[in-house]
Amino acid sequence: MKRIDGGLIDRDHPVDFRFDGHAYQGFAGDTLASALLANGQRVLGRSFKYHRPRGVLSAGSEEPNALVTLGLGAGSEPNARATMVEIRQGLEAFGQNGFPNVGFDLMEVNDLFAPFFSAGFYYKTFMGPKLPGWRVWERVFEPVIRRAAGLGRLDRTKTPIATEKAYAFCDLLVIGGGPTGLMAALTAAEAGADVILADEDHLPGGRLNGDRQEVGGQSGADWAAGIVAQLASMPNVRVMTRTTVTGVYDQGTYGALERVVPGRGRPEETFWRITARRAVLAAGGIERPVALANNDRPGVMLSGAVRTYVNRYAVAPGRSAVVFGASDEAHRTAADLLRAGVHVAALVDARPGATCDLTVRFHAGGLVEGVQGREVESVAIRRADGVLEKVQADLLAFSGGWNPSVHLTCHLNGRPVWRDDIAAFVPSEGAVPGLIPAGACNGEATTFACLSAGRDAAVQALANLGRQATPPDLPQAEDTAGEGRPLWVMPGKGRKWLDFQNDVTVKDVELAARENFRSVEHMKRYTTQGMAPDQGKTGNVAALAALADATGRSIPGTGTTTYRPPFVPVSIAALGAGGQGKGFAAERFTAAHPVALSMGAPMIEAGLWYRPSYFPKSGEQTWRESCDREVGYVRNAVGICDVSTLGKIDVQGPDAAAFLDFVYTNNMSTLKPGNTRYGLMLREDGHVMDDGTCACLGEGHYVVSTTTAAAGEVMRHMEFAAQVLRPDLDVRLASVTEHWAQTAIAGPQSRELLNEVLDTPLADGDWPFMACGEVSVGGIAARLFRISFSGEHAYEIAVPARYGESLFRCLVTKAEARGGGVYGMEALNVLRIEKGLLTHAELDGRTTAYDLGLAGMMSKKKDFIGRAAAGREGLTDPTRPRLVGIKPVGAVQQLTSGAFLFEPEAEATRVNAQGTVSSVAFSPTLGHFVGLALLTEGPERYGEKVRMVDHLRGVSTLCEVVHPAFLDPDGGRARG
Amino acid sequence: MRLTCPHCGERDLREFTFGGATLTRPEGDWGPDWDAYIHLRENPAGLSREYWTHDMGCAAWLLVERDTVTHDIRAVRPVGEGAP
Amino acid sequence: MRFNALRVLKEGLTGNRGWGPHWRDPEPKPAYDIVIIGGGGHGLATAFYLAKEHGLTNVAVLEKGYLGGGNVGRNTTIVRANYFLPGNSEFYSHSLKLWETLEDDLNYNVMHSQRGLFNLYHSDGQRDAIVRRGNAMINQGDDAFLLDRAALEKKLPFLDYDNGRFPIHGALYHPRGGTARHDAVAWGFARGASDRGVDLIQNCEVTGIDTEGGAVTGVQTTRGAIRARKVAIVTAGRSGQVAALAGLRLPIESHVLQAFVTEGLKPVIDNVITFGMGHFYISQSDKGGLVFGGDLDFYPSYAQRGNLPTVEHVMEAGMTLMPMIGRAKVLRSWGGIMDMTPDGSPIIDRAPVDGLYLDCGWCYGGFKAVPGSGFALAHLLATDRPHDSATGFRLDRFTTGRGLMDEEGKGAQHNLH
After folding, report:
1. A951 — phi, psi (to 5°)?
2. Domain of A944?
3. Which of A63, A54, A111 lies closest to A84 in space, CA to CA?
4. Residue B19 lies in a domain
């Protein structure tokens, strides 16, 4: 193995890199595979099951063998295809699945036990012995199997990976930059269409870069480079190299992975969502290996890949080669090897009548039955006369034929169809709406046919878009393809690999057939054929042929082949770009957020919002101390709380009142301007969806509040009700949650404090409980609501969000001067539980108005959403769990949320369970724990004892069932 | 998937939310018609008439005719235009 | 033929020539006592338990395509018993017990691996909900532990506890939860049923359900008419179409759920991890692939494939939860057709046509239910009484509103699940 002359590598730019700790040098333009081959390194990996040494089979993304890990430790990348990795200065790569390394792997012993590791053997064993209390599968077999399986190793450190996602739009997406794709892109570009040309190689051109052939009077590679340069200079064309189109989705959406050229500030990878009005698939073909004995050995290589290494990378992948095929391409491979100075020990052409004009040993009608050696040392040739001849060689270049790259045409469930004349599957008609397969991926065999098909496909695609294209002249190119025939399974003994990566051999397929896994889907699943990283790109069709053989059926009679996205494996970091850290979901901050932060409040998530949990003061040891103090502010002086996260929906229109009657269970049309009412919404299935307040600001103008978590859902629900269910009503909705910063002022001194900030103080007797209206604060128009979620005399004041922070600071300062202060979510929760008020712990989507003691809020005089379904017998059954309060009455005084309730003496099992505890709090006001619970027949059981059991926390508490309003049940404090 | 909002033009699936089969809400108390409305579905494998909302866009509710096997979108109309 | 290590050894030494078909491929007979429509996990398990528990073997399973070709072969392989509502609780508990002896019962290694399952929580509210679930599990006699952050971090050091969008506070740990090799479950039940005399008929699509006087008399198929006294519809996402053959409409809407697997990796995730805030769940298969999934695409579909918004959401959830998997590459994605019921819980019941039975509505949780569902439906078919573990799965619960089992609290409306 050595460098030879020519090639598309840049010899002026040597590149140093390391593989398995050894230093090597290659050139810019090399892949890791070509550079290692040039350095004589043939073993790059180990196989999955038998740990056989593996070399390079291909020169593209279909590579099943040469998977390596890039980098070490944090940020290292397992399972990179050496055939796709461009070498760069300092690149460090490692072989995989070998211990201690891929050159010498102790696990290779597995290969000796291969007879016992037949397809599906693991379903038949590892089931015993059964030892009581000792799980032999989990303890013994599975760990051993897991350690042996897998390929690369994932580093567990949490290293950020720079990835991005992006959108792109075009008239025509051309997938693949070989002769077909270049011609399609050129045709469309010259017609003025917006074109994206995506090619997974860094150097577009496809086979033109790997073969020696002339296009338009120059080398194919030069012609391709010229067209690419021309395209790149056009403003309506985006040439995306290193970009693999990975998936097809509905309505012309394509996913594509770009491996970005390294550079400062650049991501490693970008995942593109490309929306294309039309697409031309010009993905080319993938060569098939031939199933012959030991065809997985390093030194066995696809014939086309050999040409690519010789012509493009200027690497001789062996010293002495046998070339085997059944088409003229084999001759081309032999010719290129000879030209590169590689000894061609034999050219074996399975076609009996074939002739050869090269000066090599030629075997027409011969077959290769196998190779010998750990790396290829000799090749066994069955000559046409039946004699088996062993030829010394270190390289076998073989071709079983070509599979059109139909993969993307399968992504919308298209099933490829078999073409007997070319012995291959081609895309079915119309498999992907708007996508035209052209060229080799559609079964074309010559360069000229591909150029022509690319041009025609672009013309057709543009015509579909109503655009006229003037087809450019086609360059002169190779236009004859000799007759070929496919080579599937060769005769002779030994294991013949179909799926190199997963170690599936012809014997495995035969065994599957014997065991009645005759459906191709069964065979694949039983043998794992096609399930490996290459997804059967090289092996699936040959496996189908082997199954057809084993079951006495034709290939199309046996089944078809199909592929799912992605076309090549795509990193989770690329598909999930932006999700790491806080990026997974939007973060919403209220206007007063900086105040809470400056006061040292721990923030907790409430939906997408952040809210302060409590506001610690120096000297306080636990959150409870802070919380108890804050509860005291509200109960004894005045507390300030940011309630901006609650949803606010503005409802306006002549029929707004009628509309609100329809979405709320209770009557809203009787609400007069300047008044607020508590409202309950059901889902149409009769269960409670949400609660909140509805304030009438004027005739036909309301603002309704929702809980923080349900704001989006309620908005969508109300829009549905307005647009779909009641289009007869003239009403408009707008979400104004972010527009207003809203602050609760709660406690006996709330009115006094409020009057300190209002431009016109509230007059005595004005603003009774549930009043609302406009006020002025520092010259700013504000909205004031006299509502309470604590049971105290309280207000909520809303100002435009930009004034929220300063008003909040001002209110907190003034409250502190009155012996009160700011309170957080913990205190808010205690305050509402003391009053028996509800949150989504009780409105959990399963409860009804009846369950929550709110049946009286369901108007009998009007229709409303959920009315009919709420009347079902099962929703009004008295034995349903219904809302009660509980308080501890025994030695144990602790209540816990999530606990279950039982009769005091009953065993704590499912059949005895009578309810669950939804919310608990320690009430500093009452000096004991208080809890809300849903208990069967609850309200009929006040005064009874129940036992609360929390198995998980080990708490068992005797409780008394009480009314849920522990404090001020008649509500005098809020009204006063 | 991409839908063409009659107000905003062609947009990606991520701007829309599916809202159920297009059925007519019954009147009156609970009965078989309500049961059918809330629970029973044709669940067609093929052409399906559905409500969607462009809730990340103009907030309009839309009538969509869509094939549940191919994901082909046959028509998108505002709910006001055409009976469910 | 019994499977065991000795047999594998002997066959290995003799060229593996002695292995025979795992199941027979009989021609359909003109009549059976019971016809099961659908040769997926649930249908095959029903056939197995009819034979094993009730001695009923004049039974045929009719499969449109190939055995195990539905959701049993396209899921994330999670097996657990961590429900909290009565009705579900006892059923999944029973199903898990069946899993625990399944390999003995089937003489087939389905690789049931009780590697433990973690449900993460991120707030006090979620902790309380998870505690309620855990207490329900213990009430039922199953296992659950509440882990705080420190305890969880010892077991799962690779999660991003602090920097993720939803910092992790702890988890509910279900040691008996785990995974199984999904295809093997279908094949094991198929082999067990076939060995006991049940006819498994592949490539046999049911095109009609025959009734006479309001009672089932048989089915029409692409392989001819088959008479039957009892017919069970066990066709998951296709339940609506098959039930329509008998003139029924079901409370089911079929949605697509996508799942993903990465390339093989050395052991890195030893348990099953569920990240509720991200609708994300992940485990690592014995072959080394990370198997994970997310939420529905949220539109009805029979395409068995989904779209990018959900794909990306799932991946983003993975990245915020455990950034280490960023370097793993997704190898394959697929979609299953989920038979979603309004309350998210299944139906095992007699249909309003005599002799017709329904087993459907498994939503996105049918895999772990395979043995339990087969066992319960076999019991119902054999005795016409629901099995004790499945009394809650009534069809009429939607009509009456009695016994709804809405674990997620999203409501008995299709468009809200």
Report:
1. -60, -45
2. 877-976
3. A63
4. yes
Prediction pTM value = 0.96
Q: What pLDDT does A103 receive? A: 84
CB C353 within 8 A of CB C248: yes
> Which residues of chain B lie closer than 8 angstroms to C404, CB-CB?
none
CB-based contact, A255 to chain B, within 8 Å: no
Asked, as a colleague might, if the bond just before A566 is cis with ω within 30 of 0, I would say yes
Q: Does some domain include residue A615? A: yes
Decide: A692 and A704 in contact? Cβ < 8 Å.
yes
The Cα A623–Cα A615 span in angstroms is 9
In this complex, the residue of A684, A716, A724 whose CB is nearest that of residue B17 is: A716
Comparing CA positions, the residue from C158, C71, C155, C165 lying closest to residue C118 is C155
Name chain C's partners: 3 or more CB pairs within 8 A.
A, B
Q: What pLDDT is stored for residue C253 in this prediction?
A: 95
Q: Say whether both C209 and C331 belong to one domain.
A: no
Q: Distance between CA atoms of A331 and A309, rounded to whole angstroms?
A: 16
Do C279 and C171 share a structural domain?
yes
Q: Residues in chain B whose beta carbon is closer than 8 A to a beta carbon of chain A?
A: 1-2, 12-13, 17, 19, 25-31, 34, 38, 51, 53, 55, 59-61, 70-73, 79-80
Residues 6+ apart with CB under 8 A from A597: A603
With CA atoms as reference, the chain C residue closest to A141 would be C111
Return d(Cα A854, Cα A939) in angstroms, integer.
12
SS3 A959: strand
- Domain hosting residue C200, numbered range: 5-9+22-77+183-251+343-416
Nearest CA in chain C to A69: C327
> Which residues in A lie closer than 8 A to residue C129 (C-beta atoms)?
898
Rounded average pLDDT over A231-245: 98
Residue C33 distance to chain B (closest CA, Å): 30
Once rounded to an integer, what is the mean pLDDT over residues C44-50?
98
A723 and B61: CB-CB below 8 Å? yes
Task: With respect to residue C147, please indicate whether it lies within any of the assigned structural domains.
Answer: yes
- Residue A479 forms part of a structural domain: no
Q: Which residues, other chains included, contact A292 with Cβ-Cβ below 8 Å and sequence gap of 6+?
A: A367, A368, A369, A370, A371, A398, A489, A490, A492, A496
Provide the residue type at C154 as one letter: K
Contact A579 C303 (CB under 8 A): no
Q: Work out the minimum CA distance from C360 to partner chain B, whole angstroms.
A: 14
Residue A365 φ then ψ, to 5°: 75, 10
Are residue C233 and residue C359 in the same domain, yes or no?
yes
Q: Best interface-test mutation with B: which of C205, C253, C255 has the largest number of B CBs within 10 A?
A: C253
Query: Strands C224-233 and C31-37, how do they pair?
Result: parallel
In B, which residues are within 8 Å of A716 by CB distance? 17, 53, 55
Q: Is A454 left (phi over 0), alpha (psi -120 to 50) or beta?
A: alpha
The secondary element (H helix, E strand) that includes residue A949 is strand A945-950
Q: Closest-CA residue in chain C for B19?
A: C415
CA-based nearest distance A881→chain B, Å:
22
In terms of domains, do A625 and A767 share one? Answer: yes
Examine the pLDDT at C335 and tell me if it is beyond 90.
Answer: yes
Matching residue, tokens 């060769």: A490
Contact (CB, 8 A) for A128 and C8: no
Residue A856 maps to a domain: no
DSSP letter at A506 equals: H
Neighbours of chain A (3+ CB pairs under 8 A): B, C
Residue A201 in any domain: the answer is yes
| A845/C406 CB distance under 8 A | yes
- CB contact set of A163 (below 8 Å; sequence gap of 6+): A267, A268, A269, A270, A271, A571, A573, A574, A576, A577, C326
What ipTM does the predicted assembly reach?
A: 0.98
Looking at the structure of chain C, the number of domains it has is 2
Mean pLDDT of C212-227: 97
